[in-house]
Write a structure and sequence with these properties.
single chain, alpha/beta, globular, binds NADP nicotinamide-adenine-dinucleotide phosphate, binds magnesium ion
Length: 481
């Protein structure tokens, strides 16, 4: 293990912290992924000031320069996805395959926005006044504060940083304190990409101190946040105080509906992938499985069989399907929700136990409850673990109603061979992304991503729609002589 301390990146320099973050592997707590310099408020203020200074020229930079830089970052992430994916898997606990996949996807975000840099078109129109020309075009905002969660430590950073830079903004990134390693590797690549000093800054530290300083600063023009609802609400209030633009992506309680006419294999594959992969630590996870009564028993039996074949283990071990829970606090929270579900009368079919494996870590077996109602606490609150609950219903209409009866609305899914029900569900599901015969988790990078109700606030992320958040419109009027 190296004694090197990976530093913060401020104004093009590697900067020491005031303390050190020990990044521990949740699959093997004897493995220290690395030591990271912990920033404080002062470092964050320096980063904001540097970004403000750098913004002046970056906002006027040529589009090809932006494209080349974004391409460089994307290509290196893709070329090094195995190596960086291993660090990601070690720090977060997801499987190596999931870590490698996430890094590859992160590279695609940079490449996509590299191309988008050349497509930023405005509009020209005639005026209502004769002889006057009107131009509508988009300008960058200024400094964007980016706050990311631990569950997708590289991908969330990538889908925010790439469009922010593409559209000419400067950035201060604060990753989750639990997982600074992926963000640091991204910063290291950015430091060699040709991006001018100060345009991108990384400050690693706690949400309470560094995140709070970033999001309450009057010198940032926008905040984009992915994380929990409580923190999101707090950030939004602070942003409004400064008239800063705000975009929030938060939790959910996604439903997967399985109708009587479903293809059973598709239903089980989608439910298993949606509920348990990534250890259930996805904002798009299927935690409520709403099953029509005619297929209920057959589905539960097939699900149980499939779950018996799932291997839980060290994220780095080949053949493992489900890695570790991110830390002890999250594991204890999952186990607490297991108890809550049992007390509410939910019937445990299998799983939900803490596992002792060869390495010391935070492992639990995936859990399936049946005989649950949509009113139970276990079906109202986000658990963020490998726990799914079956809700039995008597009709498609009852399934749709239960699916929509939630404070959240990020993704939803339906497994059916009926065009009629699939079409109706797409129209009437109150979520941001609707999946037909596909898992609720798993989205593309060139189209918008986001939810409704308590799951999201502000403009959509990803694809071309991201420019609505990262740019501001200017309307020019001119009267040529
Ligand atoms: P979290 O506790 O809300 O933390 C998210 C980020 O906010 C972290 O970097 C955290 O810093 C920071 N933070 C905490 N307090 C802050 C404050 N007062 N001001 C500014 N920043 C602050 O969420 P998490 O536990 O990391 O992630 C899990 C949650 O994220 C789940 O609810 C999940 O559904 C959601 N999520 C949503 C999406 C989506 O796109 N909808 C995607 C992934 C995850 P520290 O933790 O470093 O202190
Ligand atoms: Mg860690």
């Amino acid at each position: 293990m190296s004694s090197e301390v990976y530093k913060n990146y401020i104004n093009g320099e590697w900067v020491d912290g005031y303390d050190v973050i020990n990044n521990i592997n949740p699959s093997d707590t004897s493995d220290v992924v690395g030591h990271y310099a912990k920033a404080n408020s002062g470092h964050c203020l320096e980063a904001i000031a540097a970004a403000n200074t750098a913004f002046d020229s970056w906002s006027q930079s040529g589009l090809e320069q932006r494209k080349n830089i974004l391409d460089f970052i994307g290509a290196e992430l893709i070329a090094r996805k195995e190596e960086i994916g291993a660090v990601l898997a070690r720090e977060e606990g997801k499987t190596l395959a999931e870590g490698v996949g996430e890094v590859g996807r992160s590279g695609q975000f940079f490449q996509y926005y590299g191309a988008e840099a050349l497509r930023l078109m405005g509009e020209n129109t005639a005026s209502v006044r004769p002889g006057v020309d009107v131009e509508v075009h988009r300008e960058p905002l200024g400094v964007v504060g980016i706050v990311t969660p631990w569950n997708f430590p590289m991908a969330v950073a990538a889908w925010k940083v790439a469009p922010a830079l593409c559209y000419g903004n400067a950035v201060v990134l604060k990753p989750a304190e639990l997982v600074p390693g992926s963000a640091w590797l991204l910063a290291e690549i950015i430091s060699r990409s040709g991006l001018p000093a100060g345009v991108f800054n990384l400050v690693m530290g706690s949400g309470r101190e560094v995140g709070e300083t970033l999001c309450t600063s009057a010198d940032i023009q926008a905040v984009t946040f992915t994380g929990s609802v409580d923190v999101g609400r707090h950030i939004a209030r602070n942003a409004i105080e400064n008239m800063a633009r705000v975009q929030l992506e938060m939790g959910s309680k996604n439903a997967l509906v399985v109708l009587n006419d479903a293809d059973l294999e598709t239903a089980v594959q989608c439910a298993v992938a949606g509920a348990y992969f990534g250890t259930g630590q996805k904002c798009t996870a299927s935690s409520r499985i709403i099953v029509e009564s005619g297929i209920h028993d057959e589905f539960v039996a097939a699900m149980t069989d499939a779950m018996n074949n799932l291997v839980v283990g060290n994220s780095m071990t080949p053949g493992v399907h489900i890695g570790a829970v991110v830390d002890e606090r999250q594991l204890n929270q999952n186990l607490k929700y297991m108890e809550i579900a049992k007390q509410e009368g939910a019937q445990l079919v299998q799983g939900g136990e803490r596992l002792t494996l060869d390495t010391e870590g935070y492992f639990m077996s995936p859990a399936l409850f049946i005989n649950t109602t949509n009113q139970m606490q276990i079906n109202r609150e986000e658990v963020f673990g490998p726990i799914a609950c079956v809700i039995k219903v008597e009709s498609y209409e009852a399934a749709l109603e239960a699916s929509n009866d939630s404070d959240f609305g990020l993704t939803s899914g339906i497994i059916t061979t009926s065009l009629k029900y699939a079409g109706h569900f797409k129209r009437h599901s109150k979520s941001g992304c609707v999946m037909v015969n596909l898992p609720t988790a798993g989205t593309d990078y060139h189209v918008p991503f986001g939810g409704r109700k308590a799951s999201s606030y502000g403009p959509r992320e990803q694809g071309q729609y991201a420019r609505d958040f990262y740019t501001i419109i200017k309307t020019n009027y001119s009267k040529p002589y």
